[in-house]
Write a structure and sequence with these properties.
11 helices, single chain, mainly alpha, 244 residues
């Protein structure tokens, strides 16, 4: 994030968070829903950043390992502001994994290796979404109706459902092809050479575009239908597997 943007962006983010908190405070059951979403948020961010670190390490860059990012401890990956945004605004981030592309081995170009490292995070989120959807369907299939209607059963199913939605949301959001999101590096290798250089030369402009669509909520409006569709398709897969 560019230095001159930080204070302005943080103020705007703070306003967004305060507004959302006030909405939660006046909506019945919203605080409970917020608390139930927290485990899924921590899981999504932790595995997302771990996947980046793991991919970089496997490609020869030991920077994440040296910085302690090859860990499944949430405290190693949480960015407080990004966590708050993911909880309250449903769009956020973890502490970025630092890599040094020059350390990658030479099995492929640095650009392609960087794309793989970037893709690892969203891909991990989609894998987790599928896993937890299958768990959700398995419980629905084999648990008794009494359990599903109980308080414990309801809480468990809500936790799992929230985990699925959060992982899909984080994965989709990071695929937006604008810096500083993963998508900007994932799609770079497939661009024609001239387009690639043009994109890199104008990265600052694309970054500002990202800030605009994020702060104004345009990004959320764009990805929400995608998240809904993906969650439906994954749930249909689970229903098909378990014959529900």
């Amino acid at each position: 994030m560019f230095n001159f943007d930080r204070r302005i962006i943080y103020v705007l983010i703070g306003i967004m968070i305060l507004w959302t908190i006030s909405t939660y405070a006046t909506t019945e059951g919203a605080i409970l829903g917020l608390l139930l979403s927290l485990p899924g948020v921590l899981l999504a961010i932790t595995f997302h950043e771990f996947a980046h670190a793991y991919a970089a390490d496997k490609l020869g860059d030991d920077t994440p390992r040296m910085q302690g990012r090859l860990s499944l401890n949430p405290m190693d990956h949480i960015d407080p502001l990004g966590l708050a945004m993911l909880i309250f605004a449903h769009i956020g981030w973890g502490k970025p994994v630092q890599v040094n592309p020059r350390n990658y081995d030479r099995r492929m170009s640095m650009e392609k290796a960087d794309a793989i490292v970037s893709l690892a995070g969203p891909l991990m989120n989609f894998i987790l979404a599928i896993i937890f959807t299958l768990i959700y369907c398995a419980i629905f299939k084999f648990a008794s109706g009494e359990f599903l209607l109980s308080t414990v059963g309801s809480v468990i199913m809500t936790l799992i459902s929230s985990t699925v939605i959060t992982n899909i949301g984080l994965g989709v959001f990071n695929l937006i092809p604008l810096p500083p999101l993963d998508g900007s590096k994932i799609f770079l290798p497939i661009l024609p050479t001239k387009a690639k250089y043009w994109f890199q030369d104008n990265e600052r402009i694309f970054y500002m575009i990202f800030l605009f669509i994020w702060i104004t909520g345009i990004a959320s409006n764009i990805i929400s239908p995608i998240i809904t569709n993906l969650s439906t398709q994954i749930l249909n897969l689970g229903r098909l597997i378990f014959h529900i």
